[in-house]
Amino acid sequence: MLVSLRRVLSRPLTIIGLTCMAALLLFNEPTSMYYYLTLAQLIFVPVILEQLVLLKNWQKLIIVIGQFAVTMLYFTQQDFLILLCVLAYLLSTLVIASHGVNRFLRRGFTNTAEIMIDIGLIYIVMGGLWFLAFHLQLNTGFSPIITWLTAIHFHYSAFLLCITVGLIGRLHMTRYYKICCVVIAAGPMLVALGITFSRIVEIISVSLYVLAIFSISFYVMKWRLPRVQSLFIRLAFITLCFTIIWSFLYAYSNLTGMIIVDIPDMLNFHGLLNCLGFGIAVVFAWSLYTPPTKHNDYSFPVSKIRGRFSPTNKPARGLIDDMASYLNKEEIPVLIVEFYERTMQFELKASVQWETWFKPFAFVYQFISRKMGQLNLPFSSKTIVMDGEILEVDPQNDGREKPRVWQRSINGKPVFNAIYSQHTDTINTFMNIALPLPFSSMHGILQLSAKDGILYLTSDGQGDAGTYLAIGSYVFKLPLHEYFIIKEHKGLLTATHDMKLFGMKFLHIEYQIEKKTNR
Q1: Gap between the terminal Cα atoms of the chain
Q2: How far apart are CA 262 and CA 244, in angstroms?
Q3: For residue 437, which phi and psi values (nearest 5 degrees)?
Q4: Helices then strands (H, E): number in the chain?
Q5: Strand partners of residue 477
Q6: Which residue windows are transmembrane per the record (predicted)?
Q7: For the chain, what percent of residues have pLDDT higher than 90?
Q8: What is the pLDDT of residues 215-252, one digit of tens each?
Q9: Contact yes or no for 194/147 (Cβ under 8 A)
Q10: How far is CA 106 from the centre of its chain?
Q11: Which of 59, 134, 151, 311 could form a disulfide with 130 if both were Cys (CB 3.0 to 4.6 A apart)?
Q12: Residue (of 299, 304, 310) closest to 440 by Cα position
């Protein structure tokens, strides 16, 4: 661990930050209120950043310029130089935030711990903007001291805390931890909105924030952590448990008008302890050891087709060649097997049912979907016949194994263009379905299983299963969840297709599937 600490202290950004801070302490009149933020800008943020991401040389240069710019602000009163300095620092925060955005786009809505780190990296821009507002004396609707404290808030409560909670999540993960993460991630913005618009919102958001921090602190005290590192992590959260009470008392004072904690109290106690007890502790902790991510990059094949395309004129008889690729065919009725292997021998009738809360979005979206000719589901729940054909797709154009497109339409108007393929990981074979969109494609990676003669397909399965958006080199997991259930009864097939967004059901489709009779 000491080797890790020496390696951190030898990094250029750390050396420059420490040097700049030493220069300020030696040659500038001590003003502790301003040093709370300066410590984070010069040392805390750069040290944590280099533990998480690989910076390019030009990015390091911009961050170094930002460090020097923060230092120069203590030695100049010229408006033009102040403007250059705050813009330079803001640019450095944009570089940091770009890593959060890039990380998120390469992974998407999966792995709560990594999302917390992404959010922390992105939040730093808010700190840069409030820092700029303070030095340029912009009218934010608040006093200068509140503007300055808000800049501190986004460097500590947003950047450092979100990243720290994310790194803890790399070590331990529970369901309640995920709930706490939602509160902590939203907390900085909710508190800021409450201060701006509503004292009620402020006290509620601070109360939830207090509860989440105490809950995470409980887990930190309970979980097994690396021995030396655990001392610093636990010190950091013990400090937070004390200082967050001051935030609650300050919000309560604002709500009731009865002054219990005021701004000087917040600076002298809340600010000082968060800087020394929390900031320094977490920097030491993650410098000693930064837990590696448990997320593996996506490696499944992605369709290269984007937007409108032309398949071959060669028809395919079914969506798949052999159901045995996915499961034991004897576990499901023969008719279900026939439907997937000889799809064109079947007729589909569908009833589309939007959930009430989603209907306004569905109504607006249909004007877009009609022009795209993709995901163009009817707004009415009336049962209607879906026509279609299945055509082979050139594997060279698509990039996946044996692709074929199922083009479905209603009354001659296109509804779906879904390109079916499959891929196998070390354990499962997945149905790999691509829906081409403008400049992108949406992928449903479905896992198949059977129970009691019923076929289940879901994006909530193991391994690669999920719903993704592919844009350029990015493969982004979406908060969409799909569930198909297919049954056979007296020579007829019925199927349901349910979709959820962030766990909330928004779409239900009922299918009646009947084998065509020879006429």
Answers
A1: 78
A2: 14
A3: -130, 165
A4: 18, 12
A5: 108, 468
A6: 9-27, 33-49, 58-75, 81-101, 113-133, 145-169, 176-197, 203-220, 232-251, 271-289
A7: 59
A8: 999 988 888 877 778 888 998 998 888 887 767 776 66
A9: no
A10: 10
A11: 151
A12: 304
Please return the burial class of 64, using the count of CB atoms within 10 Å of its CB with bins 0-12, 13-18 and 19+: middle
Q: Per-residue pLDDT for 349 more than 80? A: yes
Q: How far apart are CA 435 and CA 518, in angstroms?
A: 32
Could you please report the per-residue DSSP string of 366-430? HHHHHHHTSS---SS---EEEEEEEEE--HHHH-SSS-EEEEEEETTEEEEEEEEEEEE-SS-EE
Burial call 457-473: b when 16+ CB within 10 Å, e when fewer: bbbebeebbbbbbbeee
Two tokens, residue 251: 């919000």
At position 362, the amino acid (one-letter code) is A
Q: Distance between CA 335 and CA 333 in Å, rounded?
A: 5
Pairwise CA distance, residues 422 & 418, whole Å: 13
Q: 294-334: per-residue pLDDT in tens?
A: 888 898 999 999 988 889 889 999 999 999 999 999 999 99
SS3 per residue for 99-137: HHHHHHHCCECCCHHHHHHHHHHHHHHHHHHHHHHHHCC
pLDDT at 264: 64
How far apart (Å, rounded) are the C-alpha atoms in residues 300 and 303?
A: 10
Please name the residue that has the structure tokens 């074979």: 429
Chain-centre distance for alpha carbon 296: 15
pTM of the prediction?
0.89
Q: Identify residue 391 by its one-letter amino acid code.
A: L
Residue 421: both structure tokens together: 């393929």
Please state the rounded mean pLDDT for residues 423-436: 93
